[in-house]
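Bench log, entry 3. Co-assembly request; chain sequences pasted below exactly as received.
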Amino acid sequence: MTTELLIWLIPLPPVLAFFLIVLFTNKSRAASHTVAVGAAFLSWLGAMIVFVRALGVEHLAEHPFASAIDWLPTGDTFLQIGVLIDPLSAITLFFVAWCVLMIFIYSVGYHNFGQPEGDHDHAGLPPHGATVHGHAVPSVEPMYSRFFAFIGLFAFGMLTLVVSDNVLTMFVGWEIMGLCSYLLIGFWYGKESARNAAIKAFMTTRIGDVFMLLGIAFLYSVTGSLSFEKIFSEEVLHALASVPTGVFGLSAAGLIGLLLFIGTIGKSAQFPLHVWLPDAMEGPTPVSAMIHAATMVSAGVYAVIRMFPIISLDEKTMTIVAFIGAFTAIFAATIAVAQNDIKRVLAYSTISQLGFMIAALGIGAYVAATFHLVTHAFFKALLFLGSGSVIHGMEHGVLHTGNHKVDPQDMFNMGGLKDKMPKTFWTFLIGGFALSGFPLVTAGFWSKDEILADAWAHGHTIVFFTLAIAAFLTAFYTMRQITLTFFGEPRTEEAKHAHETPWTMTTPLIVLSVFAVGFGWVGMPHWITGGLVENWFHHFVGSMLHEHSEELAFNLVPLATSLIVALGGLAAGYFTYRNVQSPAEDKLQIPVLKNKWYVDELYNVVFIKPAVWFSEVFVSQWMDKGLIDGILHLFGPATGGVGSGIRNYFDLPVINRFFGDGSADVTWWFGKNLRPIQTGRIQQYLLLTLIVLFVVGGLLYFLLMA
Amino acid sequence: MIPQSWYLILAAALFGIGMFGVLTRRNMIAILLGVELMLNAVNINLVSFWRYSDVLNMSGQVFSVIVFAVTAAEVSVGLALVISAYRRRNTVIANDLDMLKF
Amino acid sequence: MTAQQIIFLIVAAFVLGSGVMVVTARNLVHAALWLVSTLFGVAVIYALLNANFIAVVQVVVYIGAIAILFIFAVMLTRRDMRDSGPQMNSNWWLGALVAALVFVGLVFLLQGWSGFTGTAADLPSGFEPISLLGEALVSPEAYVLPFEVASVLLLAALVGAVYVAFNKK
Amino acid sequence: MSFWNDPLKVAADWLEGIFTGWGMDAVLAHVLVAFLGVLLLIIILMVVDIFLVWIERKVVARFQDRLGPNRVGPFGLIQPFADIIKLIIKEDTTPGNADKVVYNLAPILSMMSVLILWAVVPLAPVMLGTDLNVGVLFLVAAGAIGTLAIIMGGWGSNNKFAMIGGFRQVAVMVSFEIPMLTMLMIPVIFSGSMNMNAIIAAQNPIPFWVLSPLGALIFLIAAIAELGRAPFDLAEGESELVSGFNIEYSGMKFGMFYAGELLHAFTFGGFWAILFFGGYRFFGLEQVSPFLAILILVIKAMLGYWVIMWVKYTMMRIRIDQMLAFNWKFLTPLAFALLLVTALMNALLSPAPTWLYALGMFLANVVTGWIALEIARSATKQERDRIEGPTKTAEAHH
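Structure output for the full assembly:
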């Protein structure tokens, strides 16, 4: 099979799985997850083959695997649909395939496959457990098959986005993911909070998507093409950079970049539009991992990286990008410090880490941003799946004690899980260390260090210090989380009875932890290895840019900074929370942080309240009920009068009597008189037909001849 | 040589005879016999048109082969219907099966 | 008048005579047997037209299958086999009139056609109508689709006939 | 050209010369000679037919450990003539209320359907009635007339036994026509022609029974069923239908049915030889003289006829439902499968050398037959278990 064909095929298995499950196998849980995991495995296999083949190609950036066919006719030309594997998409495909496969496998265990049906579970609510021989045991998810169908579609969206060779199909994948995130965040639609979160996520990302679509339309109108190959060619880029738009003094490239970047702000939950992401924790944990690590938010960053040649053309846009990234990084990190929900901490951490990547892109650190995207995907998937495992273990405890008031996600209800769930603990620790940037061994260290080094080397001091502080906070809240969750003594009865999760959940954790550590090594700067091994990642991804970025020389300041902030943050986190037993003892429960800087409240006051007021009071009360209804009420009686007049003097006598009853009478009369013709004797019919044919045919013949 | 008109007139006559049978016979099987005659008349036409135009163009023969197939289908279903009607109503007289009127 | 013409006239008279017997014979089995002889005559007509294959297929399909089916059907509906009542409708004269009109109309229309009295060209030497016919039947450029549709029709008729005639217990 | 090489042509030319010498029109003379040729063929066939009676009676006698006719003439050779005399002088009865025309027409048609077959039989490379390009189909067309004859005989006799016999025979003939027709296509595939002479010519150097032994076998089975001979002789079924469709016939009319059947069997033996055993071809001997070719063909046909007799006198009659089930559920699907396999293999192997082609065809036939037998065996086993299952438990109960 040619590589191009294989690339075409990669996104297909999950969508086929979606249809198979929805149409055929939704009654059988085992068949559904077999289909879904099998599809993910096929995609994974294809992705790995493509990745390995991509590695074997010299100058992949100049000669990518590409194939395209005509799709939508636009006048004389066609919008094309196609696939493209260059270094960037190859590396993205790599981590997406791994994370997706792991998450699929994990989902089997997470949804309690093999457990009995719940005693009083309903579709749309999380399973409440079943009673078997007097023991409470976890029960299987009622909408098990539906879940696999949805994440299949989700994976299809992401894979489509990654392999597409143009902005349009990328946007299609983007929107499929938007739909799936809505479906999956609201998976337990019986919960009001989940419903609201789904709507919030959908609406918020929609804001970004609208701008992105504007950007795509603008891009198409300026360049006449949406294919990456065309729009990233020298002449097009040059033209884009030189066309002024008159909007804030931006060039066309700047405006397009800005519009596309707003799409990313929505999708990757950057500062003004970040509010949906923490609420998205209402979905099942594999979904959180899917959204936060493997697919959706990565897609946002991927889009910016993909569009980097355009975005980087305008300094102003770059500044905005850098500012928003850096601000988001530190802003979300501060919030994460004060959260008690294990998944929420990770959610804010995701926002913060995405800020890192965006900031890195804003200062032009293309390779570093990509590197951090990949490492982050691995360790954040690991952390989310780990937290899901913890929650699962805690739910076990909750089922054991039967005290459903205890929130299994609150870290202050945990503690001492290290011994109960060793595999989860060790993998979570690896993930946490990678997130904090624990020096030298973890992947997170290398990627984060590269961002800091880039910022320092190019003189973006403000960005550098902001990110450094954010990195310190990252290490701090990560250690806080680990300490509260795993160390010390169990703080509740439930935590004492927590239980290690099944192999379907722990195996993905172990696999991902290998990557969380190991993937950093492909991007080690050459000074650490003494030049023995080249910085493969830099070499591979860096070839994407037209002017190859120089690898940075060794510099002590950023290295020392990352060492200090990582180790310092970890140490501070551990020592601060070593003995904390309850939220009251937590000194960092500052209201402003706890309440996420009141952004939701602000939005509530600035947007939602006025909107509600506008619709409820202005439109509904004044305009609709007052003005329009008033006019209508005037019309009502008038029309009624005219209508009754017409009815009495026209409708009843003329229409009903004459036309209605009259035509019926006539038809009845004809029917009655024609009835003898219908004898039921086929030969008579035929005879009659022929005679009529003769008469008509003869008449026509002679008339036409005459 | 025989002019084509002979064949066409023969076919027309056979068609007329068949039609007479269809229109006048009381027995349903006899009606179907008449239909057979009409179909044969059509086939004579088809084959003669093949012979009297371009013989390398086989359309006439092809269509007569298809008429064979259609005839076989028509007869099998038609006779099955006759037998079925005979089982239910005990008659094969077409005019006795006039339940489909008013 | 050539020998061929004489043969044609004899065969045509045979065909028409048998045809008339088909539609007038009181005994239905006789009618069916007269149909056989009509069909046989038509096969000879095909042979006169140099369509050997069609002629043989006419014998195989019509006499070997269709006529036999008719005879079977007549025998299975035996009650009316020796029906002594009239075999014609009361308005048979109207049918006869229409049939005659059809014949006259057809001939009238045909004689206005320019090719009506045309004669056939000689067959090219080495002419193999069977292989041409076979290729035309299975060639995608020619008639494979109608051919296949006809075969599907036959299958459907087979199933339908079995279903309709099946004696439900 | 001499009488030795092309006797028919020479004789015809000579006769035409004589007729035209009498002042006859050339065309008329040609037609007359053709008619005389047909007459000659029919006479020869009738003579052969008479000896077939003797052969049949001798062979059946040997099968049954008897001597057979041995009183009239040497080895009883004159016996058939005695039979004929008996049949002719017998009273010619016609049942009351019989449909006389149909009744009398049936034996004639029956005989005719056999004789007409010889129009396409190539006796020698240069000796055949007509070189029809659809000779193979003609075989089936003539069979259709035979079917008609039997149903006419069955119906015209105004006898229930005759009617049932006729029905049965027609059911058998109509259904076994399908595997037969299918198997006729196999020589057509190999030779690429429906012409009998072309089929024989294509059997050089490998006769078709090597390429398609299964096809030859199925053709033989279908032919026996077409003939209505044992084990497929339900139309006569002496023990149940007391002679079936020909119950009411006596005298020479019965004789025509009887002779027609024997000649038919011999004819099918001939066709079997032509289609699968190379016809008049025997190591180039047929090139020497047409008389030798005829001799070879007759010997081969006799062998085929002997096989048909062998089957007849060793097999018991099977029930009508079993026979139809055997055809529709086994023979017809097998024939279709074999036709498909043969056509595919032919397309596949046509570029291969001859020995490989022959080997591949042979193996394909063997494999197809083996698969069919396995399927049939397992189906039979299930059926037997279904039927005998309760019996066995009942025995165990005792």
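The two ends of chain C are 63 Å apart (CA to CA). The mean pLDDT of chain C is 84.
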